[in-house]
Amino acid sequence: MENLIALLVAAPLLGAAVLLCGGRRLDAVGHWIGTAFAAASFVLGVVLFADMLGKSPEHRTLMQHLFSWIPVEGFQANVGFQLDQLSMTFVLLITGVGSLIHVYSIGYMEHDERRRRFFGYLNLFLAAMLLLVVADNYLLLYVGWEGVGLASYLLIGFWQHKPSAATAAKKAFLVNRVGDMGLSIAIMLMFTTFGTFAFGPVLQSTGDAGEGKLTAIGLMLLLAACGKSAQVPLQSWLGDAMEGPTPVSALIHAATMVTAGVYLIVRSGDIFNAAPDAQLAVTVVGAVTLLFGAIVGCAKDDIKKALAGSTMSQIGYMVLAAGLGPIGYAFAIMHLVTHGFFKAGLFLGAGSVMHGMNDEVDMRKYGGLRKYMPITFVTFGLGYLAIIGFPGLSGFFSKDKIIEAAFAKGGAEGWILGGAALLGAAITAFYMTRVMLMTFFGEKRWQPDEHGNEPHPHESPKVMTIPMIVLAVGSVFAGAFFGIGERFVKWLEPVTGFEHGHPPVSALTVTLSTVAVMVVGVGFAYAQYGRRPVPVVAPRGSLLTRAARRDLLQDDFNHVVLVRGGEHLTRSLVYVDHTLVDGVVNGTAATMGGLSGRLRKLQNGFARSYAVSMFGGAAVLIAATLLMRAV
Amino acid sequence: MNPVNYLYLAALLFTIGATGVLIRRNAIVVFMCVELMLNACNLAFVAFARMHGNLDGQIIAFFTMVVAAAEVVVGLAIIVSVFRARHSASVDDASLMKL
């Protein structure tokens, strides 16, 4: 069985190699090849899952040592895999949602002449992401981590002929680099502290390391998670990443890659458990981001950017839960999985809408689409109900548990975090209802474009709607399946540990207030966008709205602090280089030049002056000899 | 007679030769002054040989004469060819490697 793990990673990698090296002769069948390799990997995942279910919970971890990568005295880097319940969850999510999105992309990218390359990149992404979650040490995880970063870069910039896409890809790459630096520093710290970076030895010996070291490692891991999962302060790239094709947004920037940060934190749970300060930082980052993303999501008129704000916010929930320790790990992953279903479904729905609307993304130019695309409307609607936490659907089970766990942290922290999570739930209900109402309800607001082409909204082909339907089914039932009887918690418990939280108020009160704030949020949005017609041109809006449209000034902040700061720094470095370093070098050269100019005068070509030098020199030598002898 | 007096004479001759090398411009005269210095050295060698009672100095003096003879040949040839090229035997005129 162990050998299948390598195959799991190898299948999409082989697919990527075939598609990217195969050249144009594969153009006609490239999408089928890509989808087949993704599906093969999913089948392998299911086989491994079935095998795992057959064993007792304590013995479910599969280890595979593949080969020794860098064997040096005192430094052993191995390529080995570890498949436990946590990895398994991710494997199924990645390959399952990944395969569905491959199928969807067949329809979505139908008219793109570079479709084969697109599928090659998607397969590359799957391979890297699978490597990330099945690696048995941090160094190999880092390989996958960089691999998904590369795939994300390639896919955001897939339509590289658009300058905005090329810039967005660069931005994502650069911002991710900051986080990646955090991960590499964390790995180095682990090596100096524990002498290894394999999961087992590191996580079992956290007791031997000082709390200071563990806090440092934890904070560096948090930095890494912030970069990959678009958490404050490294969140700025996610909104721009929506320049990529919509299936990419659904797979990479909603369901899987952006959750890698949560995986990293949960995987390193033992480190965080032993470093409360780092854990507190994680919860703060999560709470801030969940509000930040929600507020941004409220103001965006671009449907994908509104969903991107929502992704940021939902990952904020997961990070918050992951920062709560054993009472939250399982819920973080559970929300991650349900979010993977409904957010991928929402993005695919958005893609389907765009597909029918000549790639228009401005929701103010939609309106009344439910009549034209009923399947998209229903699947999107189910995803919508799931994300706002409508009782009985996926989001309700997972989000409610996170809010409960936040309150259960206890003390003032518990109230603040719980309150933030509750407020976030209200805002989530508001912005998602806004998206829903602006897109599918009200009057049609689309106009012919400058070429006189009026969009003719139509339902997407089956190859696109079927994945949406499957994901919608997941959005509806996954939460109940996982949540009832704590099935998911019991599944993950051997890996992440679990403690029951004790909120200061009863669980029922938390649930009821979650539903109440959700209803309030929906009500506000209905009053704003349902009862009145939506203006086609966005009104100026309040100060907060305008700030939120500009992503709460994140780019302005980065520009003022980082770009300007960087410019000043480089300018002063250039100044120092020109004056000090060049001054020393040029000064030395000038001194030498002057000296040699003087010395040159001695070489005047007059034989008699040479004779004087010779006689003078001889006289000096004789005088010196005599003097030495006298002394 | 005290051999030291020969040394004084040698020093005097050497000084005259050196002064000539330094202050005269005519290459022939400079050349003769060089010869004078060589012969002053020879005189000193012979005087020392006499003072120390061995023949080393005298042998060196013979060597010096041989070398001086060879040098005269080469030196005069150079002076003659320089004179042919420049129509001057002044050492100061020949201060450049080119004409």
TrEMBL record, chain A:
<keyword id="KW-0812">Transmembrane</keyword>
<dbReference type="GO" id="GO:0012505">
    <property type="term" value="C:endomembrane system"/>
</dbReference>
<feature type="domain" description="NADH:quinone oxidoreductase/Mrp antiporter transmembrane">
    <location>
        <begin position="135"/>
        <end position="417"/>
    </location>
</feature>
<dbReference type="InterPro" id="IPR003945">
    <property type="entry name" value="NU5C-like"/>
</dbReference>
<feature type="transmembrane region" description="Helical">
    <location>
        <begin position="372"/>
        <end position="394"/>
    </location>
</feature>
<dbReference type="InterPro" id="IPR001750">
    <property type="entry name" value="ND/Mrp_TM"/>
</dbReference>
<feature type="transmembrane region" description="Helical">
    <location>
        <begin position="87"/>
        <end position="106"/>
    </location>
</feature>
<feature type="transmembrane region" description="Helical">
    <location>
        <begin position="118"/>
        <end position="135"/>
    </location>
</feature>
<dbReference type="GO" id="GO:0042773">
    <property type="term" value="P:ATP synthesis coupled electron transport"/>
</dbReference>
<dbReference type="GO" id="GO:0015990">
    <property type="term" value="P:electron transport coupled proton transport"/>
</dbReference>
<dbReference type="GO" id="GO:0016020">
    <property type="term" value="C:membrane"/>
</dbReference>
<dbReference type="Pfam" id="PF00662">
    <property type="entry name" value="Proton_antipo_N"/>
</dbReference>
<feature type="transmembrane region" description="Helical">
    <location>
        <begin position="214"/>
        <end position="234"/>
    </location>
</feature>
<feature type="transmembrane region" description="Helical">
    <location>
        <begin position="181"/>
        <end position="202"/>
    </location>
</feature>
<feature type="transmembrane region" description="Helical">
    <location>
        <begin position="414"/>
        <end position="442"/>
    </location>
</feature>
<feature type="transmembrane region" description="Helical">
    <location>
        <begin position="463"/>
        <end position="485"/>
    </location>
</feature>
<dbReference type="GO" id="GO:0003954">
    <property type="term" value="F:NADH dehydrogenase activity"/>
</dbReference>
<feature type="transmembrane region" description="Helical">
    <location>
        <begin position="278"/>
        <end position="299"/>
    </location>
</feature>
<feature type="transmembrane region" description="Helical">
    <location>
        <begin position="610"/>
        <end position="628"/>
    </location>
</feature>
<feature type="transmembrane region" description="Helical">
    <location>
        <begin position="29"/>
        <end position="50"/>
    </location>
</feature>
<protein>
    <submittedName>
        <fullName>NADH-quinone oxidoreductase subunit L</fullName>
    </submittedName>
</protein>
<dbReference type="Pfam" id="PF00361">
    <property type="entry name" value="Proton_antipo_M"/>
</dbReference>
Automatic annotation (TrEMBL), chain B:
<keyword id="KW-0812">Transmembrane</keyword>
<keyword id="KW-0874">Quinone</keyword>
<feature type="transmembrane region" description="Helical">
    <location>
        <begin position="6"/>
        <end position="23"/>
    </location>
</feature>
<dbReference type="InterPro" id="IPR001133">
    <property type="entry name" value="NADH_UbQ_OxRdtase_chain4L/K"/>
</dbReference>
<comment type="similarity">
    <text>Belongs to the complex I subunit 4L family.</text>
</comment>
<dbReference type="InterPro" id="IPR039428">
    <property type="entry name" value="NUOK/Mnh_C1-like"/>
</dbReference>
<keyword id="KW-0813">Transport</keyword>
<keyword id="KW-1003">Cell membrane</keyword>
<keyword id="KW-0520">NAD</keyword>
<dbReference type="GO" id="GO:0030964">
    <property type="term" value="C:NADH dehydrogenase complex"/>
</dbReference>
<feature type="transmembrane region" description="Helical">
    <location>
        <begin position="28"/>
        <end position="48"/>
    </location>
</feature>
<dbReference type="GO" id="GO:0050136">
    <property type="term" value="F:NADH dehydrogenase (quinone) (non-electrogenic) activity"/>
</dbReference>
<dbReference type="Pfam" id="PF00420">
    <property type="entry name" value="Oxidored_q2"/>
</dbReference>
<comment type="function">
    <text>NDH-1 shuttles electrons from NADH, via FMN and iron-sulfur (Fe-S) centers, to quinones in the respiratory chain. The immediate electron acceptor for the enzyme in this species is believed to be a menaquinone. Couples the redox reaction to proton translocation (for every two electrons transferred, four hydrogen ions are translocated across the cytoplasmic membrane), and thus conserves the redox energy in a proton gradient.</text>
</comment>
<dbReference type="GO" id="GO:0005886">
    <property type="term" value="C:plasma membrane"/>
</dbReference>
<protein>
    <recommendedName>
        <fullName>NADH-quinone oxidoreductase subunit K</fullName>
        <ecNumber>7.1.1.-</ecNumber>
    </recommendedName>
</protein>
<keyword id="KW-1278">Translocase</keyword>
<keyword id="KW-0560">Oxidoreductase</keyword>
<keyword id="KW-0472">Membrane</keyword>
<dbReference type="GO" id="GO:0048038">
    <property type="term" value="F:quinone binding"/>
</dbReference>
<dbReference type="GO" id="GO:0042773">
    <property type="term" value="P:ATP synthesis coupled electron transport"/>
</dbReference>
<feature type="transmembrane region" description="Helical">
    <location>
        <begin position="60"/>
        <end position="83"/>
    </location>
</feature>
